[in-house]
Amino acid sequence: MESSAYFFGEEHTVCHSSIHVAFGAKLILLFETFILFSYVIALPLTIGYFDTIAVFQLLFCGSALALAILAIVRKKHRFLWPFIILKACEVVAYVMLFVLSFMLALVKPSLFLHLTRWRLRTVTHDNELIHIVGVIFFFLFHFIYSGLALHIIYNVYDYFRNRTIFIYFEHRRNNTKYFM
User: Fold this and answer.
1) For the chain, how big is the Rg over CA atoms in Å?
2) Which of 97, 88, 93 is nearest to 151 (CA)?
3) Do residues 175 and 167 lie in contact, with contact meaning Cβ atoms separated by under 8 Å?
């Protein structure tokens, strides 16, 4: 870490060295804002229900997202931890939901459809197979996305942490060079 240009080089990139981690984190947070808006406002008003789960998701995920946006703007790595923990929990939850939904779809599709109707009001006997496949692919897609988001956000956390350490030691070195 010889110069401040260290933080803008190829060492801190994601997606096969094509995107810098800070820009990748901004893209993830923009996409996460879109997902939160669609899950909490658009989907419940069109095909689902606006209930306690939607309010909890809005408050909990919205708070973690707001702290992550604040962390990116202020370059404070400590504010990224709630979002990292949320994404890690989402990865675990979506793996379990994928396995459970796949097993239920194979063993007892009627129970799977009953659970799906609890959340979506557009499930009928005519389109039940589409909903089964759609929900399973949704869990798989969201697992992959959450894993990618967790990887990128943790890399930007590491980048901001290293940047803070570097700036601290540069400032300390500049202040102590006149005393020696």
Assistant:
1) 21
2) 88
3) no
User: What is the C-alpha separation between 84 and 165, in angstroms, rounded?
Assistant: 20
Query: What pLDDT, on a 0 to 100 scale, did the predictor assign at position 16?
Result: 60
The DSSP output letter for 6 is G
In angstroms, the CA 149 to CA 177 distance is 42
Q: What is the pLDDT of residue 105?
A: 85
DSSP secondary structure string, 78-102? GGGHHHHHHHHHHHHHHHHHHHHHH
Q: In 10 A of CB 135, how many CB atoms?
A: 23
Q: Identify residue 119 by its one-letter amino acid code.
A: R
Helix, strand, or coil (residue 174): helix
Give the tokens for residue 1.
């870490």
Chain-centre distance for alpha carbon 43: 19
Q: Binning pLDDT at 50, 70 and 90, where does residue 136 land?
A: confident
pTM of the model: 0.80
Task: Answer yes or no: is pLDDT of 137 > 70.
Answer: yes
- Residue 38's φ and ψ, nearest 5 degrees, are -70, -40
